[in-house]
Amino acid sequence: MAMVSTSSSRPYHIIIFGASGFTGQFVIEEVARTSSEGPKGTLKWAVAGRSKQKLEKVLEQAAEALSKPELKSEVDVIVADVGEPDSLAAMCKQGVIVLNCVGPYRFYGEPVVKACVENGAHCIDICGEPQFLEGMQLNYHNQASENGVYIIGSCGFDSIPADMGVLYTRDQFKGTLTAVESFLTVGTGPEGGCIHDGTWQSAIYGFADSQKLRSLRRKFGYQPLPVVGAKIKRRSALFFSNEVQQYALPFMGADVSVVKRTQRFLVEEHKESPVQYGAYAGIGGVSSIVKLLFAGLMFWFLVKFSFGRNLLIKFPEFFSFGLFTKAGPTRKQMEGASFSFAFYGEGYTEGQDPSQGKPNAKIRTVVQGPEPGYVATPIAMVQAAITILNEPDSLPKKGGVYSPGAAFAKTSLVERLDKHGIKFSVV
Questions:
Q1: Are the beta carbons of 91 and 45 closer than 8 angstroms?
Q2: Closest to 29 (Cα-Cα) out of 420, 422, 425
Q3: So what's the pLDDT on residue 5?
Q4: E-assigned strands of 82-223?
Q5: Which of 47, 82, 137, 327 is the least crowded, having the fewest Cβ atoms under 10 Å away?
Q6: Does this model's pTM top 0.90?
Q7: Where are the alpha helices (DSSP H) in 192-244?
Q8: Rounded to an integer, what distance in angstroms lies between the CA atom of residue 76 and that of residue 19?
Q9: With 0-12 CB in 10 A as exposed, 13-18 as middle and 19+ as buried, what is 190?
């Protein structure tokens, strides 16, 4: 069972590391909003990062935004730096859970995982980089298990809606669910929308290193997961989706990798029937296709070379047609934005043998929520932490490096998210 209680030597339930970064500031606000949901109605928390001055400033901003002046005096500040292992160790010794908001994780994530595993703190991140997520599982799962530490990656928009959405669909299906396809659409308000360029940088390095991801996966020595029912058909690189009534393409994020890890865990640890998964994203009409093709060709060409990657990083707004910016979205843009995942599942009704004949039943579910990057992500991350604190008995029996679905399959995380505006429903 996870260790979740504070003590005189470990005074904080939650430490937000990288709290003064672009995403970190919104995680602070979400923790402040939900502090009454901690164990016994209280949550002891602190912020951490390299600059005491910046951390104090971001607490001041949060206090103003939430009309909670007490944040300035009640929330402690811890100075810790990814480049200084002793400072990370000292931070991890003080907290039950570290919420790690410092990315790109391929450069800055491992020292935090290592410090958490060695110093008894659980760790939650919002990483969407499969190479980092799977690398941490390969390198730290056994040690985390021995130390009773839970390292749970991709607990933001990447990939809680997808991973928990597949599990929700399976749980709502009356019978054996064998395959699910998801279709993501993102809406913006009159102010438009954009994404902070930290995500853009992660994508650049991810594509550049795709060969390393393939060799990393070979090290696990996994056998392919068994296919139950009809094998899911891969869609083409660009197609018109009747499901979302717009053009769509395969989703390029971490969702497929994360869902597959969860399904493997459920098969190997709980002998459950695996669900095949395909993920797609709607991109709109013909004008969107033209922009995407042009931007995609430039990205594909430039990402191969060091000078090209430098150009992409220096001018994110130009190369992404304004989708990624160094400033990130404004609060007004965030208020007007939303996301929707439509899940289309098929399987066999109760009493039907999945090895005989074609699937004979379908299900459709939806996960909907607010702006994905900086509203839904902090909600998902903080509720994952609150779930650990309140439901340690429902986590996997041993510590380890887990995907969200593997860690939270037996918890009430879906219900908690539902109460906070990330809604799960059967259509």
A1: no
A2: 420
A3: 86
A4: 95-100, 122-125, 150-152, 175-187, 195-196
A5: 327
A6: yes
A7: 197-208, 210-220
A8: 12
A9: exposed
